[in-house]
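Quick one: structure for this chain?
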Amino acid sequence: MKPQKASQQKQSELSAVLLIRHNPEDLRERVQQVELAIARRAFELYEARGCEHGHDWEDWFRAKSELLRPVSVTISESEDQVSVRANVLGFEANELEVSIEPRRVTILGEKVPSATNTEGGQPSVWYPNQILQVIDLATDVAANSAVVEWQGGLLKIEVPKAATPTVEAEAAAA
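Got it. Here's what it folds into:
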């Protein structure tokens, strides 16, 4: 009886959750806040080094790594669809926001601290609690038809390519 219960628990942990696509304008301000925090931290690093020039990229990447968790992304494209897979391990579906534009996917997430991960009110292990990933696409997509799904730390985005005018339609318009 126990093995069946464990397998049911694993299956429920891996069940997919559909996410609501957010309006890009709604996320833009929060994305800018995250980017501003990175810029502030990079400037702090610059000042800590005695305002020595020539290390701006180093400061930016260090600041980014201190504030954001890395997200590995895989993009595949078929004749009629673009698929994006993002590793968002450690984030729950309710901690993620995704917006899709004709040539861009934005993933924003903030980890909600849990009481089990703290000692004396402080996190037991420090790790960035945010993700921000902006993915530029090579082709136009039909953002309104996208399906965004979270499943056990993997974000799956399936979006059809936008219809392109055919040569005959362009000739008829001319």
